[in-house]
């Protein structure tokens, strides 16, 4: 019998922990690795290059339009692996739960973890659950670490942007930030706006298969497009020009940003990918992206330059230019 | 200039996050993988079997006699890998910090992470930092995930205990549990008792090198020796007899346990390893353990039996026998 709340016993490593793992987790994440139920999973890897990453998720609220902390944790870590051109293989899942969390919330979250992992074709191979006394944390925090294999010949990275490269994005900017913020604050923009949280491994595979001229992949999560482009500019020692008029931003995000005094270029995204590609291959890549379900609204939004290394410049609609710095300060805490 | 407290900006993914990573983390965990500063680290792995694990640490207090949450997080995950016979290679480090955490606390924790990783010969290859508004969590939570390579021919696991095997432990039971509890509650037993938190990869390598007759390795952390032995008994479908008189327990732990009404067999350990080994090899393994700095007080404490599969029986000092069940309920929340 499953109790209707998380208790400290669920994190104590004894009988209740075992029942939780068996009845709730194994059922949803059933695979031969987890079934070992040992301290670690044993996995086989062929030799080669692998991407390894970790991310913790503390999003508030834990349920938001378009997803929840469980799907977000899976998508986010999968996307970090993709950004190295890696094929995501295995995830670990570390849950920190507040005593008293409704069991139905945990079930919804684990259902989403399971669905997200299945969609992306990754396996959750190891997990851990800790429970913290009521009031000593806020509901649920999740850590996901991940391993992916990097196919031979793939060389992408934030250091690899080259002057002349065109910069593409796979769709609207800022949806995640506004969706989470509006549901947190109880704002209702009556727009049906949802988080863009999504696994990008399929899209990235398609893009990489389209040719070897993709130089940079980067997901503009915390800190948004502006911060991610600054990182690329810094690590690649290049400048980046961004074309304001080309930026895909939905009307609801534009309206909400104006209302709240936020800049969409600094809003978090959880299903977006910035791509720098040789200009000769850009049209082909754009076509591939637009054919994919997570790339329908893909656009060319900028270009890498030799001038202004380390800087990102926004060419505004009215013909001016302004420097887009990295995010300073925190627009929105607990956005992911 | 480093501010003297953690602010929300440190978790926002912008300028302050970058400075924290560069000035505090990279300095202490400097390696070529982290220096890439990309979404994921890229590591080379030769083909074969690998152990993968994850653990979150929510210990209260974050500093305790014999260690802190940083060293504990490194040791705990290293030990989980060891328990598969794996050689720990890479760790990821996910920090969740409360706004207002004194910077000097974070520095002490990161110093310990660095020292612990160096002692064990592992590299922290990827990290993530989130900051949660003050009051929404308690100081510091850490997740460490890890990857280790399993040498060819090594086959250990909790499912692999065989009737006749002798059960060994590398030293005193319950030190971590009592050390953390007494420092949390401000109890002062005037004993100088310290947590046993330690990396066991050196000890395990030495034991495995001593022969191929080691069948089970298991660290008795949350839930203690009694719970770990129950897991072995269940997974191996064997019984285990434990000899009460042979159990190494220090006088301070014995005294504190009596005072507090706790059973040392259910107290958490963070530098202990249960080993089930063919009786013919037990003496040789015991000798190897006692030569190692983390095995000086090693003892043979029990035997695997065909009878009573799934059960752990304690042969008491006075000649009686009682069933040792798995931990039910939580003796001590936030012990790791």
What would your notes on this structure say?
- The structure is a homodimer of 336-residue chains.
- Chain A is of the alpha+beta class.
- In chain A, 31% of the residues lie in helices and 25% in strands.
- In chain A, helix 4 links the parallel strand 5 and strand 6.
- Chain A is globular and about 65 Å long.
- The two termini of chain A are 33 Å apart.
- Chains A and B meet through helix 1, strand 1, strand 2, helix 3 and strand 5 of A and helix 1, strand 1, strand 2, helix 3 and strand 5 of B.
What descriptors fit this protein?
homodimer, 336 residues, alpha+beta, 14 strands, 25% strand
Determine Rg of chain A (CA atoms, Å): 21 Å
Most extensive interface, chain pair and sizes: A-B, 86 and 85 residues
**Terminal residue distance of chain A:** 33 Å
Query: How do the helices and strands follow one another from N- to C-terminus of chain A?
Result: HHEEEEHEHEEEHHEHEHEHEEE
Number of H- or I-type helical stretches of chain A = 9
- Helix/strand/pairing class of chain A, anyone? alpha+beta
Q: Per the principal axes of the C-alpha atoms, what is the gross shape of chain A?
A: globular
Question: Which percent band covers the strand fraction of chain A?
Answer: 25-35%
Percent range of helical residues of chain A: 25-40%
Regions of chain A with pLDDT < 50 over 5+ consecutive residues? none
Oligomer: homodimer
Largest sheet of chain A: 7 strands, mixed
Q: Give the neighbour order of strands across the main sheet of chain A.
A: 9-11-8-12-10-13-14
Total E-strand runs of chain A: 14
If you average the pLDDT of chain A, what whole number results?
93
């Amino acid at each position: 019998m499953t109790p209707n709340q998380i208790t400290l016993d669920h994190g104590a490593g004894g009988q209740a922990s075992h029942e939780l793992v068996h009845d709730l987790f194994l059922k949803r994440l059933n695979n031969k690795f987890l079934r070992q139920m040992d301290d670690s999973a044993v996995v086989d890897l062929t030799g080669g290059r692998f991407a390894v990453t970790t991310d913790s998720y503390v999003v508030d609220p834990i349920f938001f339009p378009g997803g929840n902390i469980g799907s977000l944790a899976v998508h986010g870590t999968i996307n970090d692996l993709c950004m190295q051109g890696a094929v995501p293989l295995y995830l670990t899942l570390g849950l920190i739960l507040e005593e008293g969390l409704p069991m139905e919330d945990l079930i919804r979250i684990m259902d989403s973890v399971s669905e997200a992992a299945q969609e992306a074709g990754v396996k959750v191979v190891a997990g851990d659950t800790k429970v913290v006394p009521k009031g000593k944390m806020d509901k649920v925090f999740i850590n996901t670490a991940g391993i992916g294999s990097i196919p031979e010949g793939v060389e992408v990275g934030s250091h690899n942007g080259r002057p002349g490269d065109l910069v593409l994005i796979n769709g609207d900017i800022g949806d995640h930030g506004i969706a989470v913020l509006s549901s947190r604050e109880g704002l209702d923009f009556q727009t049906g706006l949802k988080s863009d949280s999504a696994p990008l491994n399929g899209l990235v595979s398609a893009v990489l298969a389209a040719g070897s001229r993709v130089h940079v992949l980067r997901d503009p999560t915390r800190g948004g497009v502006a911060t991610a482009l600054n990182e690329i500019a810094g690590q690649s020692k290049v400048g980046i020009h961004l074309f304001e008029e080309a930026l895909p931003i939905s009307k609801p995000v534009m309206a909400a940003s104006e209302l709240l005094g936020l800049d969409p270029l600094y809003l978090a995204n959880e299903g977006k990918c910035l791509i720098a590609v040789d200009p000769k291959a850009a049209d082909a890549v754009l076509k591939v992206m637009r054919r994919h379900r997570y790339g329908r609204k893909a656009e060319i939004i900028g270009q890498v330059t030799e001038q202004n290394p380390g800087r990102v410049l926004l060419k505004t609609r009215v013909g001016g230019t302004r420097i887009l710095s990295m995010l300073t300060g925190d627009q929105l805490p607990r956005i992911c």
